[in-house]
């Protein structure tokens, strides 16, 4: 058809050329709009090719066949095939099953035989931080979803104060001009003064058109990457020069048969207002500097950092259900099949980004931020902890897991924690309050390494279930995953948590375990000096008392001799008088 139109004359040729120029221009400038369609084709390329091939062959056979019966047979076969494909692939989730199995085969899995310790425990859960941040901004501002990252050697919640998506005009003309950077280890998160940092980003998550983070990153991808990469979570952190940057995690799709997602590196967007040159660059080739996973080790601020998309780590953790073999998760097996517990009431779902210390685990794992998962058996009534999974948050190609089930530890999992907390405080109004985000707390207490879950009690709005009321001094509970006892701890004094746990549980530990090392409080320098002074005073007092005793003894001896002399003198005087 196009060939016939082209051959009609010069006018038609000119129209065809103009049409293709316009088409190519639209494809170039609007690739961020149709890129999701390219990713969809990439995800299901094998299924799409299979369906189109069978459909093409079936329709060709249908057209060539003169027999009515054969035509009906072809239509029946195609109908049955596509019906089975839909039922097995989507209803029974066979496609997801195979995708997860491909993730499992691609993983660099390392089993560890000793749990790492937790450090720099975060007091507030993510939803509390998000609610408190929104309480601190005006009507025309929104707060991006908080992420736990490392800033200047400390773990911080960072989020952008960006133009609200509620009012379209702000997203067109305004920049992102401030960032919240709040300590994760304090019970008193402050969203003002030094924690509210002035920094301008002309590209942001809530901005419109070419200034939108997603659009700018997609425009930066080359044609090959358009089919294989997609932007995911956005983080705010400092680079090696101390300047704030926007780091966008990329998901890379691998494989032909049942493609699966993996970590694809990051796109780094620098801060600053953009001029006309930047505008032209933005609408043509996008903005950002791509750093591949292999190159990230050359950037100090990206190592031991949190840059991994949670969608990727969730699928990696879930793929451990194939540890016992390809068929183990099928309904007639499921001896070791596991799942990621579902978080209720719109709470923050796993993974929980946690700071771990692997120093005493005899592995090469670094100390820093990890995505932690507590996997449980697939049954809804089963809430035991089967695996603890530690995925490096910086995208390092490794996955560490600890097998609780094979060690027969009998630990309770995350799903069992809310009811235990509610049972321990029956006087609470649990209709408006709920315990949330049970992250791991692993410490050496009383002679052995013990695993607890640290949970926070939050108040949820009845009108908006996603709004959590975060108190500056939240109620915190530590639950022993082995003994199932709940210890309510002081959020203001993290240094006393281990002692509080010991005071409540040491008798149970001694009864069950026999020998038990008593908790020894680590003394401060002042306390140590005071103890030395008290000892000196005691010794001094003892010396003084000894001198007094010696004096008493000496005086007593002298008095005794004087008495004997007086007796002898009286005898002598008596003899003299008789004479």
Automatic annotation (TrEMBL):
Membrane-crossing residue ranges in chain numbering: 16-31, 37-59, 71-90
Keyword annotations of the record: Membrane, Transmembrane, Transmembrane helix
Keyword Transmembrane: yes
Name the record gives this protein: Uncharacterized protein
Organism of this sequence: Polaribacter atrinae
